[in-house]
Amino acid sequence: MTRLQTSPDALEKGIAFFKEKVVPKARTTPGNGGAVLLVDRKTGTAIGITMWETIHALNASEQFGIDSRTQSVAEMGGSIVDVDRFEQMIADRPQPPKAGAFVRFNTVLGVPDKIDNVIKFMQKQVLPVLQAQKGYRATLVNVNRMTGRSSVATVWDTLADLEASEPRVSALRRDAADAAGASDVKVEIFETAFAEIKQPSRV
Fold first, then answer.
1. Residue among 74, 96, 90 nearest 4 (CA)
2. Which domains are seen in the chain, by residue range?
3. How confident is the model at residue 202 (pLDDT cuts 50, 70, 90)?
């Protein structure tokens, strides 16, 4: 997962580069499970995600990742803010991935030995609430067991659906932070500029 920062007017170049260069190369790389690009058109923030079937495939793709990041920055300017590697623990996708959906992206900086608490809390307390909301498309929970960092992305048909769900999930967000041993949760809103995932709809 790579976070890049550029000027908002350069995002279209970055989106085109991701679709035309990064995705075709990823598709031909052994063990690739898909690719997603999230963008904030107001701030110029972009998050590029490539998925891999095994840790061995992830490690073997390292040079591909380095090249893609370097070329992306060269194409659209800006800088690489952060690179991290996660294990996907929850992938609930009652609706297929699509460009144009909106994503509430939650980042939790928790305690490594409490990662499993977060996963259980999401499965038992949060998913049933999300699944009952209008416009719900997916929830993806990714964790870094070494650092305690986790990301929870919920996907919605429209920005209005995302905003309407906020009152139902805001209190749960605080409880999730407590379960993770975190002081707070960073929340960002993104648009899905590209999404292609080979995994099954529920993991």
1. 74
2. 2-83 (3.30.70.100), 87-189 (3.30.70.100)
3. very low
